[in-house]
């Protein structure tokens, strides 16, 4: 086996270890999300079991946090127990430069193609959320103004109604007096 093949084995081993670590970390994050959602669901159903559920959640979460460390240990064992490591170090010159260039191109690609659009998307989302909150504030303010106007209209209508009733009672009294006076004169 020549040194470039050995270097390729070494780099592939490192790449697989990185993928395994990423999967372990992703799995841990998903696990925490599931554990916390079930924890909240359990507490909402039976609040008196909160201490037991808290203990179980922390124990399970601790195991899940330990899982990436266990995977890291196993991965490091694969890297350092590789029998071709010594031979691969002899071929590290060109391979290392090629890997550095590939990594630099990958970083440039991510920054150019993914990072900027993602930041723009996040900024747009932030703007939409801020606009939505501002619209909600305006809506609340407009609702308060509308309620104040409605209360003022209601007060004015009640005043007008009481004026109309008072005027009608005065007119009724006048009509009664006129009728009495007309009856006396006859």
Describe this structure in words.
- The chain has helices at residues 3-45, 50-80, 85-90, 92-185.
- The chain is an all-alpha fold.
- The protein has two domains: 3-90, Up-down Bundle (F1FO ATP Synthase); 116-186.
- α1 (3-45) packs antiparallel against α2.
Give the terminus-to-terminus CA distance. Answer: 141 Å
| Unreliable parts | none
Q: How many structural domains can be distinguished in the coordinates?
A: 2
Element string (H = helix, E = strand): HHHH
Class of secondary structure makeup: mainly alpha
Radius of gyration: 40 Å
Q: Name the helicity range.
A: over 70%
The best one-word shape is elongated
Q: Give the biggest beta sheet.
A: none
State the helix count: 4
Identify the CATH architecture of the largest domain.
Answer: Up-down Bundle
Strand-residue proportion: under 5%
CATH fold descriptor of the largest domain: F1FO ATP Synthase
Task: Detail the topology: elements first, then pairings.
Blueprint: H1 3-45, H2 50-80, H3 85-90, H4 92-185
Give a quick set of tags describing it:
186 residues; mainly alpha; F1FO ATP Synthase; ion transport; lipid-binding
Quick description:
This protein has 186 residues and is mostly helical. It has four helices and no strands.
């Amino acid at each position: 086996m020549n040194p470039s093949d050995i270097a390729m084995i070494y780099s592939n081993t490192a790449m697989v270890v990185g993928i395994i670590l990423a999967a372990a970390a992703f799995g841990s994050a998903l696990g925490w999300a599931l554990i916390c959602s079930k924890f909240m669901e359990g507490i909402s159903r039976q609040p008196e079991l909160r201490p037991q559920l808290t203990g179980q959640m922390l124990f399970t979460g601790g195991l899940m946090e330990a899982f990436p460390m266990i995977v890291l240990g196993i991965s490091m064992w694969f890297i350092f127990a590789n029998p071709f490591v010594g031979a691969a170090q002899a071929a590290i010159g060109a391979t290392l430069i090629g890997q550095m260039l590939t990594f630099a191109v990958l970083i440039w690609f991510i920054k150019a193609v993914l990072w900027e659009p993602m930041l723009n998307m996040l900024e747009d989302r932030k703007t939409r959320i801020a606009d939505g909150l501002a619209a909600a504030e305006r809506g609340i303010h407009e609702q308060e103004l509308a309620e104040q106007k409605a209360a003022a209209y209601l007060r004015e209508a009640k005043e007008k109604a009481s004026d109309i009733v008072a005027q009608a009672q005065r007119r009724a009294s006048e009509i009664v007096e006129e009728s009495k006076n007309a009856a006396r004169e006859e």
